[in-house]
Amino acid sequence: MSDSPREIEALIETLARLPGLGPRSARRAVLHLLRKRGALMLPLADALRLVAETARDCLACGNVSTSEICPICSNPERATGELCVVEDVADLWAMERAGGFRGRYHVLGGTLSALDAIGPDELRIPQLLRRVREEGITEVILALNATVDGQTTAHYIAEALAGTGATLTSLAQGVPIGGELDYLDDGTITAALRARRRF
Amino acid sequence: MSDSPREIEALIETLARLPGLGPRSARRAVLHLLRKRGALMLPLADALRLVAETARDCLACGNVSTSEICPICSNPERATGELCVVEDVADLWAMERAGGFRGRYHVLGGTLSALDAIGPDELRIPQLLRRVREEGITEVILALNATVDGQTTAHYIAEALAGTGATLTSLAQGVPIGGELDYLDDGTITAALRARRRF
């Protein structure tokens, strides 16, 4: 649309770069925002700027935070001695949504990858080893993705933590709650069969 | 997530109010924005603020604009004497995307509605009548939606414009390009049959 105001076209193009929004839905979102300039458009601009200017990595765990230490690490009720190791912040958020874990986290920032030349020092693995030694961690839960890189990373961490006295565990693999066998991949079914338990 | 930074939760909630985004996709969008703070998050905040502060209704046609007169109205190549009447800016954008129209627009801002007590003076109908008289309009194209309120509004405008000398037309109704009869509603098929043309 050449006869469209430049500023509005620029906003649509920027918004269309968000995951889950394409040019069409970005256009629809901008129309909605234009109708609610004061109630939605300005608050959204302010919220984005505030987060962009204050968001940082938690110095302790690598979670995204607006303070030096994130709310999870600074919550004394969560100093349980359990440390959950995740690849990235999205995984931490998924664990928190599930709500079953009351310990603290350690965000690696990725996985080891020979192809992409990502070694332990590119991730927060040295910090993890230091935390396990210094913070009285009794259990390290490896909540890494069930991918080749995720599992390679898990094995590397397991070796590096041998001898620290911390128990190492990983998330169980099996049939998802509500899952139907007919729709599951073969790998999951095989893993669930191997890890079968007495009924 | 009680242990999540307040500012980030507020951003997710605000973003989730956009059409097409729910809480889950808003969360995913915020993770993406956090990874691209400088390249995407701040530019988006700035683009939103700029549009929120400069967007206004074009004084001539009611289109959204960042100047007193919108780029379409101020484009001399579009002063063709053809005026396309649409309900809202979304419809104007749809017409512009289609790209077949090179005249100018008039945005009513809604449709007449007895139920919602919306009369001609709540819409930009008086301005339309004035424009048709004063701007040398030769054809008024009624591109209103094929709804009861849309067609009521079209009939009202047609009566009000009787005697101005301007030709009144409306968008053709029929089978959409690429449309299959089997999937079309009965009303459209009947309208297409009634408006059949020699092959």
From TrEMBL, chains A, B:
The keyword DNA damage applies. CDD domains: TOPRIM_recR. A zinc finger (C4-type) spans 58-73. InterPro entries: DNA_Rcmb_RecR, Rcmb_RecR, Rcmb_RecR_Znf, TOPRIM_dom, TOPRIM_RecR. The keyword Zinc applies. It comes from the Bacteria. May play a role in DNA repair. It seems to be involved in an RecBC-independent recombinational process of DNA repair. It may act with RecF and RecO. NCBIfam families: recR. PANTHER family: RECOMBINATION PROTEIN RECR. This is Recombination protein RecR.
